Amino acid sequence: FASFSYFETFCYAGLEAAACGASIICFDSSSLAEVVRNYKIGKVISASSCGESIVAETVEYAQRLFTSPSPRKAMPAELVDLVSPARIAARHEALYESLTRKIAGR
What we know:
Layout: E1 2-3, H1 12-19, E2 24-27, H2 32-39, E3 42-45, H3 52-65, H4 77-82, H5 85-104
Parallel strand pairs: 1-2, 2-3
């Protein structure tokens, strides 16, 4: 999973991708970088030194990912559970029901 946003505060999609077994490539200016560094599940790119050499290094890293073991094994259970399909579905369903009750109460 590649997140090339300089300013994104947190990339929930990146966390979901990691829980599914994908490695993450992101800039150091996002909070997703903290997750990548702490759990060693991808590569963090320096936003201030982004040039041709960084791009080449990142492409090489991405190519190595195809032969590396899943980063999901490195993720602690609480992170995997945080983005589990069952938990996400339950939260969306609860939000939907809450909004439906609010609308019906008008």
